[in-house]
Write a structure and sequence with these properties.
heterodimer, A: ten-stranded mixed sheet, 41% helix, globular, disordered N terminus, B: 511 residues, mainly alpha
Chain lengths: 352, 511
C-alpha cells in the first residue's frame, strides 16, 4: 500500500472533521431561511402522502402562486406522532394526511384551527370533520382485489363478511397495521356493533390470512398469483399499472366493489388540517383552496387514481363513479374511536 | 499495563458524551411516567410481550452465533491460511456491510416470494452483519503474537489444541465485541424483520406507531428493549473479565505462519464464494431485474446527486460529531480502566438497541424542549447518529489506544511534557488509525440509517435512504434502484477503508 494505515486514518479523520463541520454550518443556514416563512412566501407542509404521488401537484401550486412549499414527507402515522411531540412549537403549517384517523388524532390534541366555512362547504359533509378541523381532499374506496386467473367472477363474495367462510381459507391478503384496514374495522363497529367486528376479526384470523405490511404489497402479490385476493384501497391498481407501463384493464388483478351498502365498500378520505399557527396565513388558505380546486381534483383522479371530492370533476377512468358505489351509511366523524379498534386488532392476533 | 489515574478533563468529556447517548432513555422515562404505572403494566404484562421478547432474543442468538462462526472462520481463512486470492475474498467478505438490511431483505423477497418469517430474517441479518465480527477478529489475528502459538506447539500440543487453547483465546475479546454489536443490531433492526415479516420486538414497536398512532404503547415496549440490552451487556462484560490481555511480548511485529490448506482449498473457496454470492449477488441481481422491469424513473440526475450529497454531508457530520464525543471515552477505556470507566462505557451502549424511530422521537423531544435552535437542522440529525452509533466509535478508539503502549505517554510525561501536550503529540497520533476506522464505521452506518433520518432531517432535505423509501413505498422499484445502487457504492468506500485498516490488504513483508 502506498499510504500507511496511520496516514490513511489521519487523512480520513481530518477530512471528516472539515466536511462534517462545513455540512453542519450549511444546515443552520437552511434552517434560518426556513424560519422566515412569512416574508419569503413559503409554507411548510407535513405530507403523510408519498412524494412520488403528490410532489408534482405541490410544484404546480408553487408555479401558479409563487408560494414555495417546504414539504416534509414521511409515513402518516409517524408524522402524526411527530406533530403531537412537537406540540405548539411545530414548524408545520399544514398536515396532509393519508387518512381521516391521523387527522382526528392531531385534531384531538387541539392543534388544528377551524377551517373557513366556505372552504369546507365545497366538500360533502360525509368527507370532512363535523367541527371543521380537517377536510377531505380525495376519496378512496375499499375493494377486494383479486387475480382473475385464480378467482372466477361468480365466486366473488357479496359481502366482506363472507371472507371468513371456508371457501376463502388461506386465500385473503390483509394489512392489519394499515390505517385503511383499521378505519374499515371501526366502520364495522359503527355500522353493526363491537361483537360483529370481533367476530369478523377472529373469523379472519382463523381463516389463515396472508398478512402484509401495506396495500401495495398485497396488490403486488395478488398480481403475481401468490395470493388469490386481498382487501385494499382501489387506487393501488392504478399505481401498479403505471409502474408496469400498462393500463389497469390489462392486468390480471381486478377490483370487486362490494354492493348493497356493505361495510366492505367503505369510502375513506385523505385530507388536510391547518395548524393553529397558520390560522391567519393567507398563503396556507390558498393552498387548501388549491387542493379543493378543479385542477388538483383532476390531478387526483388522473394521476393518483383517487376519487375527487368536489362536484363536476370526473372519477378515475377504470372504476365506477363515486355516485354509483353502494357505500355504507357511515359518517367518517364516527370513525374516531380508534383505540377500541386497535385493542380489538391486537387481541385478534393479526398483528405482532 | 500500569493504570493511569482518570484525568478530570477526559472524565468530564466522557460523561458529556454518555449524557448525549442517554437522551433517548430520559425521553422514555418521561413518556412512560406520563402514561402512568397502570398503563405500563397493562401494556407489558402480557403473553404477547413475553413471546416477542423471546423471539427477539432467539433471533439475536441465532444470528450472533451464525455471525461468529462465519466471521471467525472467514477471518481465519483469509489471515492464517494459504487460501488463493485471500485478499480478494477478504474484501468480498467485508462488503456486505455496505448493503442495508432493507435492501437485502427486499432482494430476497423478490427472489423467493413466500419465503418469510424467523429463519429467512435470520439468514438475511447474518449475511448483512457478519463483517461486524470478521473485521475486528481479522485485525486481532493479524496483530496476535505468533510466539504464544509456537510455545504451545513446542510443548507438544497439536495444531487443533493450539488453535482452541491459544488462538481462540487471543481473539476472544475481539469476537465478543463484534458479537455484541451484532446482537444489539439484530434487536434494533427494522428493515429485514419488517420486509420478511419476522415478528420481533422492533416490529411490534413500529406496528404500535402505525396502529392507531400509539406513541405511548410503542415507547413502553421500547423500555423492554433497554432491559434486553442490559442483559446482553452483562453477558458480554462477563466474557471480558475472563479474557485476559494478550499483548505482544515486545520485538517487532511478524506474521504468523500460514496453514497450508492443500486439497481442502477448493471446498473452502466454494463456501466463501457461495456466501459472497448470497450476500452481494442476490441484491445485485434483484436490483437489476427491478430496474429492467419497471418504467418509473428516478428524478433527473441533479436530484439524485443532491440526495447523494445530502447523504454524504449528514453522515460525515454525524461521524465527525460521534468521533468528537467518542474520543475521550475511548481513551479513558484504554488508559484508565476501572469500575467508573466500565460503567460509562456500558451506559453508552444503552440506546444502541433502540429502533431508529424511538431515537428520532426522543431527539424531536430534545430539540423542541431543550435545543430549539437546532431543531430540524443537520446538527440534530448528527446528534441522533452520535446517540445511535457512539459504541461503534468508542470501540474503535479504545482498540487502537490499547494497541499503542501507554509507556510512551509515561515517558513523555516523565520528560516534563504537560498532559495536553502528551495528548496532542503522543496519544492522538497513536490513536489516529482507530479514529479513522471508527469514523468510517459510523459514516457507513449513518448512510444506511432510515427511520431517525426521516423524522429528524431538515424539511425538504432528501437523502439516498429517504428517496429509496419514497420510491419503494409506492412500488416504483425502477425509480428506487439507482438510489439503492448509489447508496451501496458510496458505502463501499468506507467499507474498503475498514478492510485496509484491519490489515487484510497488506502485503506480507517478511513471510
Amino acid at each position: 500500500m502506498l499510504l500507511t494505515r496511520r496516514t490513511t486514518g489521519a487523512l480520513l479523520a481530518a477530512s471528516l472533521l472539515t466536511v462534517g463541520l462545513a455540512a453542519c454550518g450549511s444546515g443552520e443556514e437552511d434552517a434560518a431561511a426556513d424560519s422566515g416563512q412569512s416574508t419569503d412566501k413559503s409554507i411548510t407542509v407535513y405530507s403523510g402522502r408519498n412524494e412520488q404521488l403528490v410532489k408534482p401537484l405541490l410544484d404546480k401550486f408553487t408555479e401558479q402562486t409563487g408560494i414555495t412549499v417546504n414539504a416534509r414527507y414521511a409515513n402518516t402515522a409517524q408524522l402524526a406522532a411527530q406533530l403531537v411531540e412537537e406540540g405548539d412549537r411545530s414548524p408545520a403549517d399544514v398536515f396532509f394526511a393519508q387518512d381521516a384517523g391521523a387527522l382526528g388524532t392531531v385534531a384531538k390534541q387541539g392543534m388544528f384551527t377551524t377551517l373557513a366555512e366556505e372552504t369546507t362547504a365545497k366538500v360533502p359533509a360525509s368527507y370532512r370533520a363535523g367541527n371543521g378541523q380537517w377536510v377531505g381532499v380525495s376519496a378512496r374506496a375499499r375493494v377486494l382485489a383479486y387475480n382473475a386467473d385464480l378467482v372466477k367472477a361468480e365466486e366473488l363474495p357479496a359481502s366482506v363478511f363472507d371472507l371468513t367462510g371456508p371457501a376463502w381459507k388461506g386465500k385473503i391478503g390483509v394489512a392489519p397495521t394499515n390505517a385503511s384496514f383499521q378505519a374499515f374495522v371501526t366502520a364495522i363497529r359503527v355500522q353493526h356493533d363491537d361483537a360483529k367486528a370481533e367476530q369478523f376479526l377472529s373469523g379472519l384470523k382463523a381463516n389463515d390470512p396472508q398478512i402484509r405490511d401495506g396495500n401495495g404489497k398485497i396488490l403486488e402479490d395478488v398480481g403475481a398469483g401468490t395470493i388469490p385476493a386481498g382487501l385494499v384501497n382501489h387506487y393501488y391498481l392504478g399505481e401498479i399499472a403505471k409502474e408496469q407501463g400498462t393500463t389497469p384493464d390489462a392486468l390480471k388483478v381486478k377490483l370487486h366493489f362490494f354492493s348493497g351498502g356493505d361495510t366492505g365498500a367503505l369510502v375513506n378520505v385523505a385530507g388536510v388540517g391547518v395548524l393553529k399557527r397558520a390560522a391567519e396565513n393567507a398563503d396556507v388558505q390558498k393552498f387548501v383552496d388549491f387542493l379543493l380546486g378543479t385542477e388538483a381534483q383532476t390531478f387526483f383522479a388522473e394521476q393518483t387514481y383517487e376519487y375527487p371530492v368536489i362536484d363536476g370533476v370526473p372519477s378515475p377512468a377504470y372504476v365506477p363513479a363515486l355516485s354509483e358505489l353502494a357505500v355504507p351509511q357511515i359518517d367518517l366523524n364516527d370513525l374516531d374511536t380508534l383505540d377500541a379498534t386497535v385493542t380489538m386488532i391486537k387481541n385478534s392476533g393479526l398483528v405482532p | 499495563m500500569r493504570r493511569l489515574a482518570p484525568r478530570p478533563a477526559l472524565l468530564a468529556a466522557s460523561t458529556a458524551a454518555v449524557a448525549v447517548a442517554l437522551i433517548p432513555l430520559a425521553y422514555l422515562g418521561v413518556r412512560t411516567a406520563e402514561a402512568g404505572w397502570d398503563a405500563v403494566v397493562a401494556e407489558l404484562w402480557t403473553d404477547r410481550v413475553a413471546l416477542l421478547a423471546l423471539r427477539s432474543l432467539g433471533l439475536a442468538a441465532v444470528v450472533t452465533t451464525a455471525c461468529v462462526l462465519l466471521g471467525v472462520g472467514t477471518a481465519f481463512l483469509v489471515t492464517r491460511t494459504d487460501l488463493p486470492g485471500r485478499r480478494a475474498f477478504a474484501v468480498l467478505a467485508a462488503l456486505p456491510l455496505a448493503v442495508p438490511t432493507y435492501i437485502a431483505a427486499f432482494a430476497w423477497v423478490s427472489a423467493l416470494p413466500r419465503w418469510e418469517g424467523f429463519w429467512p430474517a435470520a439468514l438475511v441479518l447474518t449475511l448483512c452483519s457478519y463483517p461486524y465480527v470478521l473485521l475486528p477478529v481479522a485485525a486481532a489475528l493479524r496483530g496476535a503474537d505468533p510466539a504464544q502459538e509456537e510455545v504451545s506447539r513446542s510443548l507438544g500440543r497439536s495444531g487443533w489444541q493450539t488453535f482452541t487453547a491459544v488462538t481462540l483465546r487471543q481473539i476472544r475479546p475481539a469476537t465478543a465485541a463484534g458479537a455484541l454489536l451484532v446482537a444489539l443490531y439484530v434487536l434494533s433492526d427494522f428493515g429485514a424483520v419488517s420486509i420478511l415479516r419476522a415478528d420481533t420486538f422492533t416490529r411490534a414497536i413500529f406496528v404500535a406507531f402505525d396502529l392507531g398512532f400509539d406513541r405511548t404503547g410503542a415507547l413502553v415496549l421500547s423500555s423492554v428493549l433497554v432491559v434486553l440490552t442490559v442483559v446482553l451487556l452483562t453477558g458480554e462484560t462477563a466474557t471480558r473479565r475472563r479474557g485476559a490481555r494478550y499483548a505482544r511480548l515486545g520485538g517487532t511485529r511478524r506474521p504468523a505462519p500460514r496453514l497450508a490448506l492443500g486439497a481442502a482449498r477448493w471446498p473452502v473457496i466454494a463456501v466463501l464464494a457461495g456466501v459472497a454470492a448470497l450476500a452481494l449477488g442476490v441484491p445485485a441481481v434483484s436490483l437489476g431485474r427491478r430496474l429492467a422491469a419497471g418504467v418509473s424513473r428516478p428524478g433527473a440526475l441533479p436530484e439524485v446527486l443532491t440526495a447523494a450529497g445530502n447523504s454524504l454531508t449528514v453522515s460525515l457530520a454525524g461521524a465527525a460529531l460521534t468521533m468528537l464525543l467518542a474520543l475521550p471515552l475511548g481513551l479513558l477505556v484504554a488508559r484508565a480502566p476501572g469500575p467508573l470507566t466500565t460503567a460509562l462505557d456500558r451506559l453508552a451502549y444503552l440506546a444502541h438497541a433502540l429502533p431508529g424511530v424511538v431515537i428520532g422521537l426522543s431527539l424531536i423531544f430534545f430539540g423542541i424542549n431543550v435545543a430549539y435552535p437546532l431543531y430540524q437542522t443537520r446538527w440534530l440529525l448528527a446528534l441522533a447518529y452520535a446517540t445511535l452509533f457512539l459504541p461503534l466509535a468508542v470501540g474503535a478508539v479504545a482498540g487502537a489506544a490499547a494497541q499503542s503502549p501507554a509507556g510512551l505517554e509515561e515517558v513523555a510525561r516523565s520528560l516534563g511534557r504537560g498532559p495536553w501536550t502528551v495528548l496532542r503529540t503522543v496519544t492522538l497520533p497513536l490513536t489516529l488509525p482507530g479514529i479513522g476506522a471508527g469514523a468510517a464505521l459510523v459514516f457507513l452506518t449513518g448512510m444506511k440509517e432510515l427511520p431517525a433520518t426521516l423524522l429528524l432531517r431538515p424539511t425538504g432535505t432528501d437523502t439516498l435512504a429517504t428517496e429509496l423509501w419514497t420510491s419503494t413505498a409506492v412500488g416504483a422499484y425502477a425509480a428506487a434502484a439507482p438510489y439503492a445502487a448509489l447508496l451501496v457504492l458510496i458505502s463501499a468506500v468506507p467499507t474498503w477503508l475498514l478492510v485496509a485498516r484491519s490489515g487484510l490488504l497488506d502485503r506480507e513483508r517478511n513471510a
